[in-house]
Specification:
By secondary structure, this protein is mostly beta strands. The protein has no helices and eight strands.
Length: 83
Amino acid sequence: MLYDKRKLARSVHRNATVKIETVRPNDTRKTLAFLVKSGFLESTDDIPEPHEFKAIVQVSHGSHTHPPHEVQFSEHDRAHHAH
């Protein structure tokens, strides 16, 4: 799910192209492509662990490309919560 400037949920245009470049703490970079599914995005490749990185999100559709957006992503240790 994507969000607009007001942080309201927004659907992804079905013809959108979504690319995310991950930047790891050691500065390793990888560009991932995503497919638009019903209400979510699905990576066309496995996203290697650890799932902690800066993500630079690029969305385009038709001839329009949105400015890139950076977010920090960190997945908490699942084993810690498995009580």
